[in-house]
Specification:
The structure holds 2 protein chains of 2 kinds. By secondary structure, chain A is an alpha+beta fold. Chain A contains 6 helices and 14 strands. In chain A, strands 3, 6, 7, 8, 9, 10, 11, 12, 13 and 14 form a 10-stranded antiparallel β-sheet that branches. In chain B, a hairpin with a 5-residue loop joins strand 3 and strand 4. The longest helix of chain B is centred in the N-terminal third of the chain and has 15 residues. In chain B, 18% of the residues lie in helices and 25% in strands. Chain B has a 9-stranded antiparallel β-sheet, with no helix packed on it. Chain B is an alpha+beta fold. The chains are: A alpha+beta, B alpha+beta. Chains A and B meet through helix 1, strand 8 and strand 9 of A and strand 2, strand 4 and helix 5 of B.
């Protein structure tokens, strides 16, 4: 595994855009294979709704390891599981993307556990844009130009993350290998930053609710997508993420997303993060933009950069 | 009167006496493992990002006293010529204008804040500029075997008393030191020294070696200042997306 990553990075210095796509392809392929091979994750079934219910039960009884300041100790390296990076609504064998000879989308369920129909509760105008609609026909996937993914996509797509809880207990820090994105989650902040500051990664305010890290996210610029299919939100989005250990080596991640401009109701996704236990493992630098060579090609195809559905940047 | 004056003298002498070393040491913030606690949001307050050396004001450039020891950068003859070419073409040739990661030490003195997170295993730096990240391992692990090219190098640190000493190698030859065309090659080797000199000030010194470019090692030194504004966060400066064409598209919104 590490040998491959090193190879990608070695390529990365000169052809990092390729490295980006290679890494992504590997990640989705790996998680897809593992999802079919494994029957359980953290003692829970791998079907997303069943996993979600089971994980919530296990969270009630599991007593996680603790940091010196008494919080659940989630430090270490983690890989996402039970995700479908192509579409949060899932991919069926009938989807043409599942038979794409270049990079076939992984057939499997999406991560939506609420509403019960497991579809994004789009308002009618918005459904036509996301869900393999106008967005993917019109715009270059922001991920394809090495942009920050922002939550929740940054929890979904990076093949590997590192979580740090430095002494003092005031921060939880996520480092992503992909695009060297990072998330700094203060757990002592009393308020969000001013509403006119818009960010790719939004502003996070965290708190501990028992054994769960709850993160309130606002201030998104709305330039990010939820997945390869162009599913989206706008700059008025509000997310609440919940990270809970259900096993020494499994975190359940769930996120509730509301955006009154786009959806008819809040909706929730759930998946797993599984610990990488390789001894001596370290994150490497995945420079992406520095080696980008494909942008002109994409733009020559007529694709445009995506700058959100509502916010007019200043 | 006379007695009062004598007392004043005594007080003055006592207060001018050097503070015992032990008192200074205990005044520094400490991590649970006893090392100086470098955590917080830091930023330089100098003009090294524009020009490492002494310089007067130019268009868009604040004047500044340099950060290079002795003010001379010991370029080999060909490299001195190359530096001058870089300077002449700096508005287009500087890798900064392409929105790339700026390399080390340049990212340390960009005029943007960065945040340090410290555990016994590593000291991690997250930069507002280009969302750069440096993970400085302090667990005794060696540099990985090369050849490897990282835009921010590979950093391995150790504590020498209260100073964090960091050895950095595995660079590219694609980054510069500043906006004045000072540059290096991919054999760049840095030894950085981070020393808290008070709760809110940190000395940053870096020794620079590159046998292909310089005739001898040389050194720069500067101060890092703790940012203390309430509710302060690192925001985002994504240089790759702040070019003119992108700004125009952003202002138009999606049509």
């Amino acid at each position: 595994m590490r040998v491959r990553a090193l190879a990608v990075i070695a390529i990365g210095a000169r052809h990092a855009s390729f490295a980006c796509f290679i890494a992504t392809a590997h990640a989705s392929a790996a998680s897809g294979q593992d999802a079919t091979r494994q029957t359980t994750v953290g003692g829970c079934p791998t079907e997303p709704v069943a996993f979600h219910k089971c994980a919530e039960d296990r969270a009630k009884t599991f007593n996680p390891p603790r940091t010196p300041d008494g919080r659940p100790d989630m430090q270490g390296y983690w890989r996402p599981r039970l995700t479908n990076g192509f579409s949060v609504e899932g991919v069926t064998g009938a989807d043409p993307e599942a038979r794409n000879p270049v990079q076939a989308a992984t057939v499997g369920p999406g991560m939506i556990v609420d509403p019960p129909d497991r579809r994004i509760p789009y308002q009618p105008w918005a459904a036509a844009l996301g869900r393999k609609g106008l967005h993917v026909k019109t715009y270059l996937d922001p991920h394809g130009r090495c942009a920050l993914h922002g939550p929740p996509r940054n929890v979904e797509v990076s093949p590997i993350y590192q979580l740090i809880q430095p002494p003092g207990g005031n921060y939880v820090v996520w480092l992503l290998e992909e695009v060297h994105e990072y998330r700094i989650i203060p757990t002592n902040a009393r308020r969000h930053i001013g509403r006119d500051i818009k960010l790719w990664g939004g502003d996070a305010v965290g708190r501990w609710e028992g054994n769960t890290l709850v993160v309130d996210v606002t201030n998104m610029n709305g330039y990010n997508w939820l997945d390869d299919a162009g599913n989206f939100f706008t700059d008025t989005v509000h997310m609440v993420e919940r990270w809970t250990m259900i096993d020494p080596d499994v975190i359940q991640y769930q996120v509730t997303i509301e955006d009154p401009r786009v959806y008819t109701r809040p909706w929730t996704m759930s998946w797993a993060l599984v610990r990488e236990k390789e001894p001596g493992f370290e994150l490497l630098e995945e420079a992406c933009w520095e080696g980008e060579r494909d942008m002109e090609w994409f733009l020559n195809l007529g694709l445009k950069h995506y700058y959100g559905e509502s916010w007019r940047g200043r | 009167m006379r007695t009062g004056f004598a007392r004043w003298i005594t007080v003055a002498v006592v207060s001018l006496a050097p503070i015992p070393a032990a008192a200074q040491v205990t005044a520094l913030p400490r991590a649970p493992d006893g090392k100086p606690d470098l955590q917080g949001i830091w930023q330089v307050f100098n003009t090294a990002a524009w020009d490492l050396q002494d310089h007067h004001a130019r268009l868009g450039v604040p004047p500044g006293q340099g950060v290079v020891e002795g003010n001379e950068i010991p370029y080999q003859a060909w490299a001195a010529t190359k530096k001058q070419e870089n300077f002449d073409k700096r508005l287009t040739a500087d890798p900064e204008v392409k929105g790339y990661l700026p390399g080390v030490p340049r990212i340390m003195y960009m005029p943007f804040p960065f945040q340090i997170f410290q555990t016994p295993r590593h000291v991690t730096m997250a930069f507002e500029y280009a969302h750069g990240v440096r993970i400085i391992y302090t667990n005794g692990s060696p540099h990985p075997a090369g050849p490897l090219s990282f835009w921010l190098g590979d950093s391995r640190g150790r504590w020498e008393g209260d100073t964090l000493v960091v050895d950095v190698v595995h660079f590219t030859d694609q980054t510069w030191f500043d906006r004045a065309g000072n540059f290096h090659g991919d054999l760049l080797h840095l030894i950085e020294r981070y020393t808290l000199i008070g709760p809110d000030h940190m000395s940053y010194e870096v020794t620079i070696e590159d046998p292909m470019v310089f005739t001898r090692p040389w050194k720069m030194s500067m101060l890092l200042y703790r940012r203390k504004e309430p509710n302060l966060r690192l925001l985002e400066f994504e240089p790759a997306f702040l070019v003119e064409e992108d700004q125009r598209q952003r202002e138009q919104g999606n049509k």
